[in-house]
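Incident log, entry 3
Record: DUF340 domain-containing protein (95 residues)
Problem: checksum mismatch between cached and fresh output.
Input:
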Amino acid sequence: MDVILIMCLGVLVGSRFFPKQYKKLCERLQVVCTLALIFCMGVMLGQRPGFLQELGQLGLQSLVFCLVPVAFSVLFVYLLTCRFMNGREKRNKRR
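Fresh output:
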């Protein structure tokens, strides 16, 4: 959580207080720092004892955490589309 707060603070400071001429430099620095963060997270995960044994379970959990929000998002959009677009289609047929 601390990392996300620091990254958001960096984006805020970079967008508000740095001159426009340094915008491209700030964008590149943010990308480099994000890549370094992802690399460090990978190194920390790789150092965990028993990581390879946990990888199967972590992969399954990640899949579930991915599929459940996607499924509910699709369902939500479908229900909203059915509710609000049916009236519009009926009005278009009358014309």
